[in-house]
């Protein structure tokens, strides 16, 4: 750990144990949970995530989105990673998972762990730790995370839409969904800053462009988006997309919040953060101070990563993240 990382880690470590004592975090998880059973766990995840990032930079972006889609839905339990079988429909096939990618490389990380310690490190911890390492590679803060999560034995395909908001849902709905995962308004405004990396397909944008342009979009930016998405009815299989942040597309930074203030938010859920008095001042504060954004992003991602985990004897530790263990 470099000097910068360890100094930044201290306040978070304190807040992690305080959160636990106050009943806000999960006390069944612990720092360095695999210290005895698989001491190199966190190093292996870091090595694999870095190796993948050097070959396919956007894997890092995927690990951050994976944490959101897995942990927001009931629990951080790797239910997202289960593939469709005769018995299961994968959450990955939900319309809310549109555009998610790189799932095959989760297996690369898990295989490296299995080679060292078979059936020991849960896929849910792979989801959490890979996101933690990804955030660092994407220029975000280092977030110490507890481990010891267990994996679900089922997919929650049927209820994905009850937990993960849609691109055009109201701010009230978005805030209440995050509230259910223990994340307040400030945390929500910070977490949506993950949209400073990655891409959005035209299917999620065209309803802001056609038949008429949403008046909350900057005129020039709307012209640019229409050039990116010329078809009002895009073929969902077409790889047409716009970048969330053209200036630093691979950095988790407050350019997201600056863009919102200049009416260059991509999704409706992004842009409406500045249309509402309860969130606009938070957007302004984060746009003015990247350290403040990173601080709240880190504490909120930590909370999300500890949303209602399975621990102890609950669930199982999968040997292959794509399938439940056979009996
Ligand atoms: C109201 C909440 C949210 C909604 C409605 C939402 C929706 C979306 C949509 C529609 C996309 C574009 C998918 C595509 O067209 O390919 C996207 C991308 C993304 N989202 Fe979210 N999101 C939300 C919150 C979050 C949170 C909390 C995080 C992480 C902390 C996150 C991380 C990402 C990332 C990293 C991408 C880029 C993926 C890529 O380029 O592969 N999102 N989101
Ligand atoms: C790991 O476990 C060993 C022996 O069980 C202990 O001495 C050491 O302090 C532990 N390290 C951490 C970082 O928890
Ligand atoms: C939200 O967008 C979807 C298409 O992605 C559309 O079917 C739906 O009608 C929109 N909902 C609202 C409230 O505009
Ligand atoms: C920016 O935010 C950091 C972290 O919250 C805080 O310590 C610092 O004082 C803020 N800087 C300014 C100029 O407000």
In short:
With 327 residues, the chain is mainly α. It has helices at residues 3-21, 41-55, 58-71, 103-116, 123-137, 160-163, 171-180, 185-191, 219-228, 255-261, 268-271, 277-288, 290-305; strands at residues 199-201, 241-243.
Helix content: 40-55%
Instruction: Name every ligand kind in the structure.
Output: protoporphyrin IX containing FE, 2-acetamido-2-deoxy-beta-D-glucopyranose
When the domains are counted, the total is 2
Please give the largest β-sheet.
2 strands, antiparallel
Going across the major beta sheet, what is the strand order?
A: 1-2
Instruction: Tell me the distance between the termini.
Output: 40 Å
Indicate the low-confidence ranges by residue numbers.
1-7
- What is the overall silhouette? globular
Number of helices: 13
Order of helices and strands: HHHHHHHHEHEHHHH
CATH classification, class level of the largest domain = Mainly Alpha
Radius of gyration: 19 Å
Strand content: under 5%
CATH architecture of the largest domain: Orthogonal Bundle
Give the helix/strand layout.
Layout: H1 3-21, H2 41-55, H3 58-71, H4 103-116, H5 123-137, H6 160-163, H7 171-180, H8 185-191, E1 199-201, H9 219-228, E2 241-243, H10 255-261, H11 268-271, H12 277-288, H13 290-305
Antiparallel strand pairs: 1-2
Helix pairs in contact: 2-4, 2-5, 3-5, 8-12, 8-13, 10-12, 12-13
This protein binds protoporphyrin IX containing FE and 2-acetamido-2-deoxy-beta-D-glucopyranose (3 copies).
One 2-acetamido-2-deoxy-beta-D-glucopyranose binds next to loops.
């Amino acid at each position: 750990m470099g000097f910068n990382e360890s100094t930044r880690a201290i306040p978070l470590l304190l807040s992690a144990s305080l959160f636990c004592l106050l009943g806000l975090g999960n006390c069944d998880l612990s720092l360095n949970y695999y210290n005895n059973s698989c001491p190199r766990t966190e190093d292996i995840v870091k090595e694999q995530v870095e190796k993948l990032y050097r070959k396919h930079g956007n894997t890092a972006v995927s690990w951050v989105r994976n944490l959101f889609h897995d942990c927001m839905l009931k629990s951080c339990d790797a239910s997202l990673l289960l593939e469709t079988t005769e018995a299961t429909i994968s959450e990955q096939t939900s319309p809310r998972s549109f555009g998610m990618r790189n799932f095959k490389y989760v297996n690369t990380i898990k295989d490296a762990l299995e080679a060292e310690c078979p059936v020991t490190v849960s896929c849910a911890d792979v989801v959490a730790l890979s996101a933690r390492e990804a955030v660092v590679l994407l220029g975000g803060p280092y977030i110490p995370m507890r481990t010891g999560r267990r994996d679900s034995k089922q997919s929650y395909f049927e209820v994905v839409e009850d937990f993960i908001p849609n691109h055009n849902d109201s701010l009230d709905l978005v805030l209440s969904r995050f509230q259910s995962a223990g994340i307040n308004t400030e945390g929500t405004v910070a977490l949506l800053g993950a949209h400073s990396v990655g891409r959005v397909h035209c299917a999620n944008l065209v309803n802001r462009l056609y038949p008429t342009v949403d008046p909350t979009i900057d005129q020039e930016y709307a012209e640019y988006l229409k050039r990116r998405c010329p078809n009002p009815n895009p073929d969902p299989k077409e790889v047409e997309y716009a970048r969330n942040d053209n200036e630093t597309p691979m950095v988790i930074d407050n350019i997201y919040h600056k863009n919102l203030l200049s009416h260059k938010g991509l999704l409706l859920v992004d842009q409406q953060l500045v249309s509402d008095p309860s969130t606009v001042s938070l957007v302004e504060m984060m746009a003015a101070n990247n350290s403040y954004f990173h601080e709240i992003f880190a504490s909120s991602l930590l909370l999300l990563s500890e949303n209602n985990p399975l621990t102890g004897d609950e669930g199982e530790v999968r040997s292959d993240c794509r399938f439940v263990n056979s009996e």
